[in-house]
């Protein structure tokens, strides 16, 4: 099954079994091992990547369904020596322990700041029509799709606040 | 995962043809891909409908909304009109899943998602829904999350959607392109079947029938709320949820459109409950009477017994919230 899509700005052609998830395509066939397989069932968020600018679970995405899509996994956000502001903030605020969930956390958090900038409400937003604020409660709710079994959550929240330009 | 053929549908009739003979539609895939990994579902052919033109949210002539079946849960929750005029729907959507899943999950797929009953998911266990005639492991097993209304001796699964509960309270209709070529509109309530002795049949859809849109009637006067009680504060299915649109006029309940999640095999609406509230002055005793009617036939199975008193309290809390301080 031929699939052509854009990964980190580059057009890639893959000829794989239709059962192949986007996550396995990235990790096993394109050598992009930043995205992690945690649960493989959409529960942990370690596989979070951006597809057409939105965060999704790559483990629940079939590669063959993403013909023509633009995929940005963690490698596309920044590289050693040229970290994205969110990556830099995770380093400075020590937003991890073992690091396994970190690429998913960073992809997710990067999209989340954009969602808040666009005024998307969340479950904890008091007024559906007001601009949401970047409170700890909002960050926790909006990041609930990314588990950290080391429980580095307080520092993850600090890192997100820092990347958002607030003093944590 | 079992091997399957993949077909990317280019038009609705092409999708219907491909699905009528052993095909299964896929859009967001957040539930189906998971079930395929576990081999709980093993479609011979996947018919990818994501390229069909069903992503619009349009105003209908009578002030309602026509929501395309491929509108993502995110885009529906964020729609300015929904946030303003049908906030119970935004609230229900935002209370479900995670942002990653809502970005992928679609309106049609959300309606058709399968139960999260542990026995349905575990192929080592009996399940009449997954394997008709094999028995129900949940009846005397771990049934904390399962149903107390509308069940049968064969199945006590719950429908997991939050969105559908709000749509049920709002009186939504489902637009279906039948495999034969006709387009029909059904009240959402009529889409779903109760388990009876065929729990494997969950909806009235035949192979190849495609949900193309959900239609919301024009907004009505009243306050709206979606209250969801669950085991953790985020990313958990409802133990009990209530979607409500309630109005009070001249000190009496003038509208009480209610639907319940977490209690039954389908989003649950009981017109007798609503009738008991209409025309009466709101009071704790009245809300209790409404709960009596709702729960008259409720049956627990041990670990889920708590849902019966919990549903009573959640209903009462929502009705109190929506009638308090209302114009007398």
UniProtKB/TrEMBL annotation, chain A:
A GO molecular-function descriptor: metal ion binding
GO CC term, one of those recorded: periplasmic space
Coiled coil regions in record: none
Record keywords, A-Z: 2Fe-2S, Iron, Iron-sulfur, Metal-binding, Oxidoreductase
PROSITE patterns named in the record: 2FE2S_FER_1, 2FE2S_FER_2
Domain 2Fe-2S ferredoxin-type positions: 1-77
Domain of life from the UniProt record: Bacteria
PANTHER family named in the record: ALDEHYDE OXIDOREDUCTASE IRON-SULFUR-BINDING SUBUNIT PAOA, OXIDOREDUCTASE, IRON-SULPHUR BINDING SUBUNIT-RELATED-RELATED
Protein name as annotated: Xanthine dehydrogenase YagT iron-sulfur-binding subunit
Automatic annotation (TrEMBL), chain B:
SUPFAM superfamilies assigned to the protein according to its UniProt record, in alphabetical order: CO dehydrogenase flavoprotein C-terminal domain-like (SSF55447), FAD-binding/transporter-associated domain-like (SSF56176)
Top-level lineage group: Bacteria
InterPro entries reported for this sequence: CO_DH_flav_C, CO_DH_flav_C_dom_sf, Diverse_Substr_Oxidored, FAD-bd_PCMH, FAD-bd_PCMH-like_sf, FAD-bd_PCMH_sub1, FAD-bd_PCMH_sub2, Mopterin_DH_FAD-bd
Keyword Nucleus: no
Gene Ontology terms, MF aspect: FAD binding; oxidoreductase activity
Keyword terms, alphabetized: FAD, Flavoprotein
Gene3D superfamilies on file: 3.30.465.10, CO dehydrogenase flavoprotein, C-terminal domain, Uridine Diphospho-n-acetylenolpyruvylglucosamine Reductase, domain 2
All copies of domain FAD-binding PCMH-type, residue ranges: 1-221
Signal peptide: none
Record PANTHER family: ALDEHYDE OXIDOREDUCTASE FAD-BINDING SUBUNIT PAOB, XANTHINE DEHYDROGENASE SUBUNIT C-RELATED
Protein name per Swiss-Prot or TrEMBL: Xanthine dehydrogenase YagS FAD-binding subunit
């Amino acid at each position: 099954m031929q699939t052509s899509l854009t990964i980190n700005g580059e057009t890639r052609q893959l000829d794989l079994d239709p059962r192949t998830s986007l996550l396995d395509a990235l990790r096993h066939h394109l050598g992009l091992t930043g995205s992690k397989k945690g649960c493989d069932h959409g529960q942990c968020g370690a596989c979070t990547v951006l597809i057409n600018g939105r965060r999704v679970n790559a483990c629940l995405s079939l590669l063959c369904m993403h013909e023509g899509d633009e995929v940005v996994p963690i490698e596309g956000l920044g590289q050693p020596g040229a970290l994205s502001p969110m990556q830099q903030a995770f380093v400075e605020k020590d937003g991890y322990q073992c690091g396994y969930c970190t690429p998913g956390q960073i992809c997710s958090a990067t999209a989340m700041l954009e969602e808040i900038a666009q005024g998307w409400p969340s479950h904890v937003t008091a007024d559906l029509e007001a601009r949401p604020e970047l409170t700890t409660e909002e960050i926790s709710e909006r990041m609930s799709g990314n588990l950290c079994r080391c429980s580095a959550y307080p520092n993850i929240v600090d890192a997100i606040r820092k990347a958002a330009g607030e003093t944590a | 995962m079992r091997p399957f053929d993949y077909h990317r549908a280019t038009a609705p009739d092409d999708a219907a043809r491909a699905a009528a003979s052993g095909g299964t539609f896929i859009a967001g895939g957040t539930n189906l891909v998971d079930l395929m990994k576990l081999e709980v579902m093993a479609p011979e052919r996947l018919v990818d409908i994501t390229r069909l033109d069903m992503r619009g949210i349009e105003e209908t002539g009578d002030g309602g909304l026509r929501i395309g079946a491929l509108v993502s849960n995110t885009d529906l929750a964020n729609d300015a009109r929904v946030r303003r005029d049908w906030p119970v729907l935004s609230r229900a959507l935002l209370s479900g899943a995670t942002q990653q899943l809502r970005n992928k999950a679609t309106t049609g797929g959300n309606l058709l998602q399968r139960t999260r009953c542990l026995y349905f998911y575990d192929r080592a266990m009996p399940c009449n829904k997954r394997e008709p005639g094999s028995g129900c492991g949940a009846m005397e097993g771990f049934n904390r999350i399962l149903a107390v209304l509308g069940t049968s001796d064969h199945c006590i699964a719950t429908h997991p959607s939050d969105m559908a509960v709000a749509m049920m309270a709002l009186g939504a209709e489902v637009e279906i392109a039948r495999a034969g070529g006709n387009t029909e509109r059904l009240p959402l309530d009529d889409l779903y079947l109760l388990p009876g002795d065929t729990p494997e049949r969950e909806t009235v859809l035949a192979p190849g029938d495609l949900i193309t849109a959900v239609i919301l009637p024009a907004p009505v006067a009243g306050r709206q709320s979606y209250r969801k009680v669950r085991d953790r504060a985020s990313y958990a299915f409802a133990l009990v949820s209530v979607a409500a649109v309630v109005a009070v006029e001249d000190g009496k309940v003038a509208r009480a459109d209610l639907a319940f999640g977490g209690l039954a095999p389908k989003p649950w609406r009981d017109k007798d409950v609503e009738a008991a509230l209409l025309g009466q002055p709101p009071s704790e005793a009245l809300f209790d009477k409404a709960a009596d009617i709702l729960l008259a036939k409720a049956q627990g199975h041990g670990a889920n017994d708590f849902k019966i008193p919990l549903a009573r309290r959640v209903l009462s809390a929502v009705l109190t919230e929506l009638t308090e301080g209302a114009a007398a």
